[in-house]
Amino acid sequence: MPTYILTFKPDTPQSEKDAARKTITDQGGKIVHEYPLLGGLSFDLPADAVSTLDSNPHIQAVEPDIEVKVQ
């Protein structure tokens, strides 16, 4: 399963963050890591299920977790 990074909009209530986590696990995904200082998390989820997060108005972005290199 691909890994993604999700960031919440500032001031997102904890209940909405919990609902997004539930959506991920209900769709067969797994939370990989929490980033509380950044207001986000990483998760594994089948690519065809990622669109279920698009309608959440509290999510700022969902992006593939890719390796970044500095040259």
TrEMBL record:
It holds the Pfam family Inhibitor_I9. InterPro entries: PBI_I9, S8pro/Inhibitor_I9, S8pro/Inhibitor_I9_sf. It comes from Sporothrix epigloea. It comes from the Eukaryota. Signal peptide: none annotated. Residues 3-70 form the Inhibitor I9 domain. This is Inhibitor I9 domain-containing protein. Belongs to the protease inhibitor I9 family.
